[in-house]
Amino acid sequence: MAAIPACKLPTTNPRFDPSSELRGLNAAGSRSVRFQRRRVRSVLYGNGDITSSSTGEAFVSVPEVPSVPMMLGSIPPKRPRKSVCLFYCEEMRELAEQVALESDAIQLRSINWRTFEDGFPNLFIPNAHGIRGQHVAFLASLSSPKVLFEQFSIIYALPRLFISSFTVILPFFPTGTYERMEDEGDVPTAPILARFFSNIPLSRGGPTSLVIFDIHALQERFYFGDNVLPCFESGIPLLKNRLQELPDSDNISIAFPDEGSWKRFHQQLQHFPVIICTKVREGNQRFVRLKEGNPNGRHVVIVDDLVQSGSTLIECQKVLAARGAAKISAYVTHGIFPNGTWERFQYDNGVGPEKGLSYFWITDSCPITAAQVNDRPPFEILSLARPIADAVQI
Which stretches make up the Ribose-phosphate pyrophosphokinase N-terminal domain (predicted)? Predict the structure, then answer.
């Protein structure tokens, strides 16, 4: 039988034959598809040559397409950091300056905080046209009711200036502990403040991002409406980094003053030996008792989200010292200390845990308190500047 001369296959209107099978690789490294003579049904897109064999069978030679090697374990490119205009209230000026030092992508912007003669705010945002199309953040501090109105005036105004996105950083959510009703007529203020934030106007980028550090109860995220996206961060990573720097870092135990603080933080501190205290009521008085764990010979760090009067922490310190703790320190994210109650906490000065604390770590979420206790042992300030700089990039 005469061999079929080589020719070009038509590239239009052929029908694919499912019965075609691969014959193997030819000498040129091309794939050969076997098909019956006179009934070419293969579809080719691109160059395909028909060649003949001594048996009269025809083959289609398709040039081999070079493969792209897989990059196993390759690192995806870093997301470019967005430029952020950071506004701040006067209380947060020092922290805002530290945040700006953490990242070249953050530019500080000021606000003229003035008042009229009757005491109401007289506010002005300089160069309002200059922030159009920019990512904007506001560092707030609702340390007292008297500053609430002026700061919400700014928070409500900024999204209306045609900005690309808006982020509010509220390190301390001040009404977080007032979320329950114990008697008919009680007014829980945590959901009320959450409603204020939920009514922030939308920016061009959509809902406002609200960054809060160690809110008192995680279920409070459900107090916020759809116009705001709460992002809950924590100061615990700052504590863990500081504990690694201690000379006795291998002898640390974590104590929780009650079951609530254990539920709140134990997953972030699960690699440390845990001690749990509990509050019991005897008559009209409440006492702290040891529930689980052994503090004997350990450097025990009491962890909670906030401190006000400090009574619970002091009672917990006494219990741990009586059970043989070698050192006692404390950490809270929010050092509120109304009326100067921070003065109740003494420095042990190496004498022993019965006399005081080795360290008392707080963050600068409450800037007025942080300024009062700065450089006063046992207090140390763990700054939120780096976590805030990272949060505005989310």
Answer: 85-197
